[in-house]
């Protein structure tokens, strides 16, 4: 058996060994030397660091976030300069409009202009005086309207129709006045809990002057009780009129003190009499 020559041994050993890799400086490295270099550089053997792995190992720098500031814009409504005698002239227009409303005549002034005039008075802190002026003007006309019912020598049903007509007119008139002076309710009344709204102020005036006109109040009660008795006896009555007047007493807050007591008394008397009749008929 012949031994391999030196040349064949070298060639076989060289062919079986791993290929050498060039280092960064151009020199060739053996696998062992390359592993040693990797260990010194902190990388595992036989693994080359990739750009993605290098990026993951880095810490991202966090920039400080700027603080958010809210921009608040304050719009201060500048008070317009009032012309000379503005308050006096404005009230003259409002008084004329209120009188026209209560007298059921056309208002000669623009409603929007009247509303703006009231708003300007409220803006200049003149609302208290304006409220008192409106209250006094309303009282004059409400009192006059109820006084026209005194001394009416008409049938009870006709008289009740007149009372109901005065009440409906009053409600419509107060709604119109409130629409003109709405700024009083929104700015003056809401800031003063002791002050009534324009609607409640009107109800208070109507209630006061109805109680002063004792004849009107008592005759109205008598007429209502008479209508209820007729209906119990089977007669036809104006239920719409009856309903409106009862709602009037409720809105004025005098239903219990003025109407309910007498109504219960009359009801008790009526059914006591009906019971006696039934007992007599059964005998």
TrEMBL record:
<feature type="domain" description="Cullin N-terminal">
    <location>
        <begin position="91"/>
        <end position="281"/>
    </location>
</feature>
<dbReference type="InterPro" id="IPR045093">
    <property type="entry name" value="Cullin"/>
</dbReference>
<dbReference type="GO" id="GO:0031625">
    <property type="term" value="F:ubiquitin protein ligase binding"/>
</dbReference>
<dbReference type="InterPro" id="IPR016159">
    <property type="entry name" value="Cullin_repeat-like_dom_sf"/>
</dbReference>
<feature type="compositionally biased region" description="Basic residues">
    <location>
        <begin position="57"/>
        <end position="72"/>
    </location>
</feature>
<feature type="compositionally biased region" description="Basic and acidic residues">
    <location>
        <begin position="33"/>
        <end position="43"/>
    </location>
</feature>
<feature type="compositionally biased region" description="Polar residues">
    <location>
        <begin position="1"/>
        <end position="10"/>
    </location>
</feature>
<protein>
    <submittedName>
        <fullName>Cullin-4</fullName>
    </submittedName>
</protein>
<feature type="region of interest" description="Disordered">
    <location>
        <begin position="1"/>
        <end position="74"/>
    </location>
</feature>
<dbReference type="InterPro" id="IPR001373">
    <property type="entry name" value="Cullin_N"/>
</dbReference>
<dbReference type="GO" id="GO:0006511">
    <property type="term" value="P:ubiquitin-dependent protein catabolic process"/>
</dbReference>
<dbReference type="Pfam" id="PF00888">
    <property type="entry name" value="Cullin"/>
</dbReference>
<comment type="similarity">
    <text>Belongs to the cullin family.</text>
</comment>
């Amino acid at each position: 058996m012949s031994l391999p020559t030196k040349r064949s041994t070298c060639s076989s050993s060289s062919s079986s060994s791993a290929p050498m890799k060039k280092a960064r400086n151009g020199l060739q490295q053996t696998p062992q030397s390359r592993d040693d270099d990797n260990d010194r550089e902190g990388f595992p053997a036989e693994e080359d660091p990739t750009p993605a792995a290098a990026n993951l190992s880095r810490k991202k720098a966090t920039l400080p976030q700027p603080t958010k500031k809210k921009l608040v814009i304050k719009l201060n409504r500048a008070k317009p300069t009032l012309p000379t005698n503005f308050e006096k002239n404005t009230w003259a227009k409002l008084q004329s409009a209120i009188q026209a409303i209560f007298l059921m005549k056309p208002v000669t002034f623009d409603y929007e202009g009247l509303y703006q005039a009231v708003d300007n008075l409220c803006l200049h802190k003149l609302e208290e005086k304006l409220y008192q002026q409106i209250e006094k003007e309303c009282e004059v006309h409400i009192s006059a309207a109820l006084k026209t019912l005194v001394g009416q020598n008409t049938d009870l049903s006709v008289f009740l129709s007149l009372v109901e007509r005065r009440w409906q007119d009053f409600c419509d008139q107060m709604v119109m006045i409130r629409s003109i002076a709405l700024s009083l309710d929104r700015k003056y009344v809401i800031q003063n809990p002791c002050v009534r709204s324009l609607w409640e102020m009107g109800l208070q005036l109507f209630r006061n002057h109805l109680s002063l006109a004792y004849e009107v109040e008592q005759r109205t009660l008598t007429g209502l009780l008479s209508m209820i008795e007729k209906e119990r006896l089977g007669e036809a009555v104006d239920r719409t009129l009856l309903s409106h007047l009862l709602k009037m007493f409720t809105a004025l807050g005098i239903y219990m003190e003025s109407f309910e007591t007498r109504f219960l008394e009359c009801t008790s008397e009526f059914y006591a009499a009906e019971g006696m009749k039934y007992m007599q008929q059964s005998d």
